[in-house]
Structures are given as structure tokens and as C-alpha cells.
Amino acid sequence: MTSPRLALVAAAVACLALGACERIQHLIHGPGFDAQALDSALDPAIGGPDTCVVILDTRSGEELYRYGDHAVCNRPLAPCATFNAPMALIGLDSGVITPAMVFPYDGSVQPSAEWRRDTDLATAYRWDTPWWWRKLAQLIGPFRFGEALSAMGYGQGQPLGDPLAFWQGPAAGGGLFISTNRQADFLRRLYGVQLFVGKNKVSLPAVLAVESLMVEEKRGDTTLSGLVASCPSIADNSRNLGWWVGRIQGPRRDVIFAMSIEGQNALPGMEIRTRVTPILAQVGLLPPA
User: Fold this and answer.
1) Is 282 helix (H, G, I), strand (E, B) or coil?
2) Tens digits of per-residue pLDDT, 61-106?
3) Using one digit for the tens of pLDDT, what is the confidence trace for 20-60?
4) Number of domains making up the chain
5) Which three-class secondary structure state does DSSP give residue 182?
6) Helix (H) or strand (E) holding 256
7) What's 194's domain CATH number?
């Protein structure tokens, strides 16, 4: 019987010979879920040459599954609102904010009723309140951001571009980029409390507060945590970017995932989550709803 590793090598050779290597889907090690079923389900749901899905073991960092070729999964992308997690972490760890701190609404015109109110961290996170995150970015400041991002190994390690929107992509004047692979690695280190600012490890209370913010739902003894985000990927708004990143933690498995789609008609992050959540249950990564 041909071993799985030899089968993967043979498939790669055939792919190169045919010049048809736009996408690679493979399982390196995947106890407890059906990788072939995941491939088959992702194709019609979110698949394509600009899609990347990475699943890592939370404890070891080992790559368990990848959908998308290496170039796509290593492509630098704007973090969009997935940056709310590291920004909240930096704010909490530095003492700039506390979980209960409220920023008063300034009365400015806002399109959503949820944005027209005094807001604390949990509310800003839930509704992705733009003015609140800009206020936090202003309080943290470029120097503290630079020190923290560099120590964390996040993106280029500097808040490049508009100081109040550097995470929102070129259309907003942002210049910070991070790949899907690096997103997954950042989350693995976050949940493993392996992040540092300067020479000091990020405080456990700050990590736990961010972990609490990220919880999306609980299914029995399994917790699904995540962040969805969307923003234009280039300055003229002709291409878009959708993210869903997070963690599945249960007694049988503990994995980090990062999913991105970048392109002219890329799905927004919320749609990625809507389409993929039932797939994760279908293949055994989540319990049934």
C-alpha cells in the first residue's frame, strides 16, 4: 500500500508536470477529523486560488491541515479588524485601558446605533466600533505599538501608514500586513501565553481578557473562538479581503485556524464564518450544533 507521504509526493510531481499547481490541499497530520471531506466541502463553499485555510495544533504548532498553496498562505495581507485582538492585548498589557474602562461617545455622526453610545472594550469588540479602536490606537501611540509589534513578531513589526488606521489596508492608508500563516502562528502564541513585549512576557490577565472576548459559542465541552474581518485589499477598492481566525478547544482536540480570501469578489469574513462553521461540524472538528 502506498504511504500517504509518498502519495503526496507523487501528486506534487504530477501537478508540476501538468503545470496545474495553483492550489495545494493536504493533510499532514489530522487525528479526529476527515481532511478529504474538509477539502471537498471547502471547494464549493469558499474555495478558489485566492483562498487559504490553515489549521495548527495549539500546543505544538504543528500544521495539521492546509488548503491553498504556499504563495497564497504566505501572501502579506492587511489584518483588517483581526487586529482588534493584538490591539486590545497591547492596550491591556500596557495599562492604557482596563476591561471596564469606558470611552465616552463624542456625538459624531455614526451609521449604526450600536456606535452611538459610551463604549467599553467588550462592546467595542462585539460591534467593531471604529471610533473606539481609533481612540485606543491614539492612546497606545506609535512608539508603544512599534515596541510591541516588533517583540510579538506581528507583520512588519511597525505601525506603518495612518497611525489611526494602519491595520485597515491601503484604502484606509494602512501599511501593516500579515500572512495567513503568520496569523495562525500569532494566535497559537497568544493562546500559549508565549507573546512578549520587549523582554517581558505579556501578562496573563491581558491574555485571558482577550481570549474571553474572542469566544463565539460553546457546544457542550467545546469552545469556538474567533474573529471575523473584512476590508479592501488595495487602495482603489477593486479587490477585497475576508478573514476568519480563531481556535477550537475541546477534550478531543485543540486547534488554531486562520482563513483568508483575497480577490475581486472575495467573501467578507462574516460570510466565511457562516459557510464554514457547519463544515467544521460535518468533518468532526466541532460537535453538531
Assistant:
1) helix
2) 999 999 999 999 999 999 999 999 999 999 999 999 999 999 999 9
3) 333 334 333 445 678 889 999 999 999 999 999 999 999 99
4) 1
5) helix
6) strand 254-263
7) 3.40.710.10
Please tell me the distance from the alpha carbon of residue 98 to that of residue 117, in angstroms, as a whole number: 18
The answer to whether position 14 is within a domain reads no
Rounded to 5°, angle at Cα 77 from 71 and 82: 130
Q: Determine the Cα–Cα distance for residues 123 and 289; give it in Å rounded to an integer.
A: 26
pLDDT 10s digits, 175-224: 999 999 999 999 999 998 887 766 678 889 999 999 999 999 999 999 99
Asked if 259 and 276 touch (Cβ cutoff 8 Å), the reply is yes
Q: For residue 19, what is its C-alpha cell?
A: 503545470
For cell 489530522, what's the residue? 30
What's the 3-state SS for 192-248? CCCCEECCEECCHHHHHHHHHHHEEEEECCEEEEEEEEEEECCCCCCCEEEEEEEEE
Measure the CA dihedral 155/233/58/44, to 10°: -160
Provide the 3-class DSSP secondary structure of residue 63: strand
pLDDT for 26: 38
Nearest-angstrom CA–CA distance, 132 and 124: 6
Place of cell 487602495: 235
Q: In sequence order, what are the residues at sequence separation of 6 or more whose Cβ sits closer than 8 angstroms to the Cβ of residue 277?
A: 224, 286
Which residues does 240 contact at the CB level (< 8 Å), separation at least 6? 230, 231, 232, 233, 262, 263, 264, 265, 266, 268
Answer yes or no: is 4 within a domain: no
Distances (CA, A) of 18 to 30, 39, 267: 28, 21, 30
Q: Could you give the CA distance from residue 269 to residue 242 in angstroms, rounded to a whole number?
A: 4
Domain range enclosing 228: 23-264
Residue entry with cell 474571553: 212
pLDDT over 60 (residue 273): yes
pTM over 0.85: yes
Name residue, grid cell 463553499: 45
